[in-house]
């Protein structure tokens, strides 16, 4: 066990071609670290580049430049060719998406889905029941196919499948955004427990500050592809240094919330060109 960070992301950059000429910079100079068992939130509005960064971490998007290193091992721009290398690569980082429905095989029951993932990674398929139990799914859900599960149950299954691989890092991209608030709270609590029990590190991508508030140690605020602020979540959310972070906080509905204040804050920020 060392004190070196588990995940080191160094100056990731990604551009996409724009229709006609030129390129859009979706991520520019994005750097951060996550300690073993740590949890980092990546927040920002729609289009700020969060998903692009998350996808570069897992290898679904190829960066123009920059590096991702897990436990001292640089991740190549493409998954390794050999099967053993590919499996080891998948064990480093797993991703859970906003809509698990599209990433779950509709033909498999929950138990079959987990057993398949466990076997693929050379693990004991008999621990499937324990994993289902871990995420709060019972015998009925074990035998159900995804279309017969609720949104929250499907997300629990997606988390269990990611855990079946025994990953070092779990990247969750808007993983609770489609769920209603009470189910969101249950899933967030579950993730927090899993982190404490297994030591898996979490990277939590969300447009919702309330979501990262409770389950992340550190937060990174993105705007127009750049990191405008990063630091301990409590500090950033209670004493934000950047006007854009203040704008995001003003936009969170709560007691006494006034949408006009949020709209006005945005106008001011746009006018300063910050
Ligand atoms: N495959 C692509 N081709 C071209 N442009 C893209 C592509 N993927 C993303 N973009 C653009 O890159 C920018 C960042 O998108 P990204 O999805 O990373 O943002 P985001 O913060 O995750 O937003 P959201 O919360 O809406 O998903 C956006 O302007 C988006 O239109």
From TrEMBL:
Annotated region (Disordered), positions in chain: 66-85
InterPro entries cross-referenced by the UniProt entry: AAA+_ATPase, ABC_transp_ATP-bind, ABC_transporter-like_ATP-bd, ABC_transporter-like_CS, Intein_N, Oligopep_ABC_C, P-loop_NTPase
Transmembrane intervals: none
Bias-annotated ranges (Basic residues): 75-85
Keyword Secreted in annotation: no
Pfam name, any one: oligo_HPY
Keywords assigned: ATP-binding, Nucleotide-binding, Transport
Gene3D superfamilies: P-loop containing nucleotide triphosphate hydrolases (3.40.50.300)
Record's keyword annotation contains Metal-binding: no
Family: Belongs to the ABC transporter superfamily.
Name assigned to this protein: ABC transporter domain-containing protein
Naturally occurring in which organism (per UniProt): Streptomyces plumbiresistens
């Amino acid at each position: 066990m060392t004190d070196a960070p588990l995940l080191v992301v160094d100056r990731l950059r990604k551009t996409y071609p724009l229709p006609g000429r030129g390129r859009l910079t979706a991520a520019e100079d994005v750097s951060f670290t996550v300690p073993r068992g740590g949890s980092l939130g990546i927040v920002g509005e729609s289009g700020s580049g969060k998903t692009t960064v998350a996808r570069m971490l897992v290898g679904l998007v190829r960066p123009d430049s920059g590096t991702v290193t897990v436990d001292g091992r640089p991740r190549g721009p493409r998954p390794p060719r050999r099967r053993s290398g590919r499996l080891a690569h998948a064990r480093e980082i797993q991703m859970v998406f906003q809509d698990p429905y599209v990433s779950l095989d509709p033909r498999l029951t929950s138990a079959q889905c987990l057993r398949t993932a466990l076997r693929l990674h050379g693990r004991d398929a008999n621990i499937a029941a324990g994993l289902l139990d871990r995420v709060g799914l019972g015998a009925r859900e074990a035998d159900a196919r995804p279309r017969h599960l609720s949104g929250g149950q499907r997300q629990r299954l997606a988390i269990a499948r990611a855990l079946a691989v025994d990953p070092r890092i779990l990247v969750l991209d808007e993983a609770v955004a489609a769920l209603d608030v009470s189910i969101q709270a249950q899933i967030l609590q579950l993730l927090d427990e899993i982190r404490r029990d297994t030591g898996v590190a979490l990277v939590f991508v969300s447009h919702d500050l309330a979501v990262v508030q409770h389950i992340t140690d550190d937060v990174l605020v993105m705007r127009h592809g750049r990191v405008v602020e990063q630091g301990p979540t409590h500090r950033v959310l209670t004493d934000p240094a950047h006007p854009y972070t203040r704008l995001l906080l003003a936009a969170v509905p709560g007691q006494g919330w006034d949408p006009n204040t949020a709209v006005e804050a945005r106008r001011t920020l746009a006018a300063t060109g910050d």
